[in-house]
Amino acid sequence: MSPTLKSLGIDQLSVTQRILLVEKIWDSIVSDEASFPLTESQTQDLQRRIAAYEASPKAGSSWEEVKARLKKSS
What we know:
By secondary structure, the chain is mainly α. The chain has helices at residues 5-8, 15-30, 40-55, 63-73. The chain has one domain.
């Protein structure tokens, strides 16, 4: 049986504490990148995107610009 929020006591944490816990869990997953090997296709796509960024780093939009556009359209 999988652990539940209640059995782990997570339901007793504040929202802030739960968010911090999620961040720590996510960081522990990301740090174990060998557990998520990329396919050849994914590797090629990432290399293409990195090359495009390096060729023109200002070509994209910042997160702030994207958020502003999304807020305008809603």
